[in-house]
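Tutorial, part two.
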Amino acid sequence: MGFSSQYGSILYIVALFAILYFMMIRPQQQRQKKHEEMVRNLKVDDRVITVGGLYGTIIKIKDDYIVLRVAENVRLKYQKNAVAQVTVEESEKE
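Running the prediction step on this input gives:
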């Protein structure tokens, strides 16, 4: 009786780790891969949003940073990883 309850406890712990992996760890790894791929595919004239919510257009790309144009004569330098997403806007209404 002791052996089967130990076996059941071990099986329960393994099942919990499997659920944890498939519910939390694996999706996070997939999101990270998609973000890394998006950062690798950045190009000049892409409109992007940074993790801080700043909208801008890429005007220069270097190894580990980009330069964004956020307004007329306003340029900001950001790390590539600070880009949250690439956007597609039809037209600006300002």
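The mean pLDDT is 89. In part three we will examine how such features are distributed along the chain.
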